[in-house]
Amino acid sequence: MAIWSKTRHPSHLSRTEKRNVIATSVGWVRRQFKGTRAQDEILVPMTDLLANTAIAAPDITDMFFDRANGYVLASANTGSVFVTFEQPVRFHANSGNARLNIHFNGNTSVAFTATANTAIPLTIANNTIRFDFQANTTGTFRILGQTVANAAANAVLIQSLNSGTANASLVFANAISSQSGTIVVT
User: Fold this and answer.
1) Residues 6 or more apart from 178 whose CB is under 8 A from it?
2) CB atoms within 10 A of CB 36
3) Average pLDDT over residues 37-61
4) CA–CA distance, 44 with 22 (Å, rounded to integer)
């Protein structure tokens, strides 16, 4: 099996290493920032990578809490969840707040709603959106598969920076959300 393809991240990189590898017009690129300057390292040149319909629009590839799995957050403090796409993204000019539900561990009841918007800068390789939430209930929590919701009437929320017009898929399955682990609020 090839370690690179036009439809998925490289298989030999760790989960953390994949977060700053993005699909671009020149191929799979590792993007790092030195201050405000983006530094791109072409890992696998593929000039037709974005022409592939399987990767034409950004998909969610990872999500994680701002600390290690099972970390403890004091009640009434702010926590963060990061959602990563396989290509650089931006908020649509008319988008409202993006909403992501955080659930009680072990059931589907929503405990918190995390939000993101244009006021929260993108991170890692311009492909990761930070969602913030207020931890106002104690217990153990996790993220279940869902669709990231838009608070505005405009259905377009997040778009590809590569094309400028391709709308990101905001649906993710439990296979992605289960990677985020749990958070404990005391």
Assistant:
1) 142
2) 5
3) 82
4) 11
